[in-house]
Design brief:
The longest helix has 16 residues, at 64-79. This protein has 2 domains: 1-40, no CATH class; 42-244, Rossmann fold. The strands form 2 sheets. Strands 4-5-6-3-7 form a 5-stranded parallel β-sheet, with helices on both faces. It has a two-stranded antiparallel sheet with strand order 1-2. By secondary structure, it is of the alpha/beta class. The protein has 10 helices and 7 strands. α2 packs parallel to α3. The chain has helices at 28-41, 64-79, 99-114, 123-132, 142-151, 167-182, 205-210, 215-219, 221-230, 241-244; strands spanning 12-16, 22-26, 88-93, 118-122, 154-158, 186-191, 231-236.
């Protein structure tokens, strides 16, 4: 890296305060370096590095909910942290409508503009790593894996409900969500499942077998209720544009 022409590489510049006294503050190059370290520490996958709010495109013919989702994401960033009160966002919708894009866009903007220390976690990968930690040949413990998840100022938990449910999965989800809820830390969640209770609307065994699987089925109704307290619900509808291959005109 070339030497900064402003600070000469020391990371500090002298400025005069409103009282007429000289003081030192971090140079822009130093601030940019800290920002890049925070972004690297968020562990956003390479596939999503370019997912910013400005890059989220609303195309001609798109469902109105996508534009509303982008608006909610931007308003959340503006309000954070004073007016969000520890709440997060729950992006709900089918595959390919841009839920992860908006979640990562919020995270990256908070890191850049608010100095947030955040973390991206793929739900299924996290559970797999926790299970793997029970192997005596693996040096990493469950607590070591969960510590950054618990501590992140803003956590993106992507694809909640993707793992087939069992008692262990439900207990692990409860531990993560309850810990963050109690600590008033914002959690941004994406899911492909509707946020309804298990068995919603089904009265018979046949109806239950035929109905759509819900988020309550995947994480349990108790944690579904907790999410209602933790997150602002953002429902997104539309086609999986990644599969259409159709060029779409962007709204101004």
């Amino acid at each position: 890296m070339s030497e900064c022409p402003i600070c000469g590489g020391v990371g500090l510049v002298r400025v005069m305060s409103t009282s007429g006294l000289w003081a030192s503050r971090a140079c822009e190059c130093q601030e940019a370096e800290r920002e890049e370290r925070r972004l690297a520490g968020a562990h956003v996958p390479e596939r999503y590095k370019d997912c910013t709010l400005d890059a989220y495109e609303i195309y001609h013919g798109s469902d109105r909910s996508l534009k509303e989702g982008l608006h909610t994401a931007r308003k959340f960033v503006e309000a954070y942290p004073v007016d969000t009160g520890g709440k997060g966002l729950l992006f709900i919708g089918s595959i390919g409508v841009g839920k992860t894009h908006l979640a990562v866009g919020v995270l990256q903007r908070l890191v850049r503009e608010k100095g947030v220390k955040g973390l991206f976690c793929d739900y299924r990968e996290l559970l797999k790593n926790i299970q793997n930690s029970y192997n005596p040949q693996v040096n990493t413990t469950e607590l070591e894996l969960l510590k950054p998840v618990f501590a992140a100022e803003v956590l993106v938990l992507d694809d909640l409900g993707a793992q087939k449910p069992n008692e262990w999965v439900w207990d692990t989800v409860a531990l993560i969500l309850n810990t963050r809820y109690n600590d008033k830390l914002s959690t941004i969640i994406t899911t492909n499942y509707p946020d309804m209770a298990a068995g919603s609307g089904a009265k018979s065994d046949i109806e239950r077998a035929a109905r759509e699987i819900t988020l309550g089925d995947r994480i349990g109704d108790r944690m579904l209720s907790r999410l209602a307290e933790m997150c602002i619900r953002v429902e997104m509808s539309g086609k999986d544009f990644r599969q259409t291959g159709v060029k779409r005109a962007r709204f101004g």
